[in-house]
Design a protein that fits this description.
Elements (H helix, E strand, L loop, with lengths): L12 H9 L5 E2 H11 L8 H13 L3 E7 L5 E7 L1 H26 L2
Antiparallel strand pairs: 1-3, 2-3
Helix pairs in contact: 1-4
Length: 111
């Protein structure tokens, strides 16, 4: 997909994408980025300069926790996983996103 076909992440969606990606299992930063890109059919890409500050912010808020482990290619990597608080926050974020998307669809459908 060309760069012109990708879209910028709307403000505030990065946290939701990270939390959702960590629902199934702990992952390291690069894997989180790759998973979002894969699931979105290469439309959404998280830049490393945005990803790691977001991970640190979510960790400070207590929504994720981190531990060191070994990656698939036998390198040391920091793995992130959801906390109970993070799972609750994911539900809040997901509900807010659904409400916003529904309202946007209604507005766009009236033109």
């Amino acid at each position: 997909m060309s760069t012109t076909q990708r879209i910028e992440l709307p403000q505030g969606t990065l946290d939701l994408l990270i939390l959702q990606t960590l629902v199934l299992e702990p992952q390291h930063g690069w894997a989180i980025s790759e998973r979002v890109q894969q699931i979105s059919s290469d439309v959404l890409r998280i830049q490393q300069g945005s990803l790691y500050p977001a991970l640190h912010r979510l960790e400070r808020r207590g929504w994720i926790k981190a531990h060191w482990g070994t990656s698939e290619n036998n390198r040391r990597a920091k793995y992130y996983e959801l906390t109970k608080s993070g799972r609750r926050q994911l539900e809040v974020e997901r509900d807010a996103w659904v409400k916003l998307a529904t309202a946007m669809a209604q507005v766009l459908g009236t033109a």
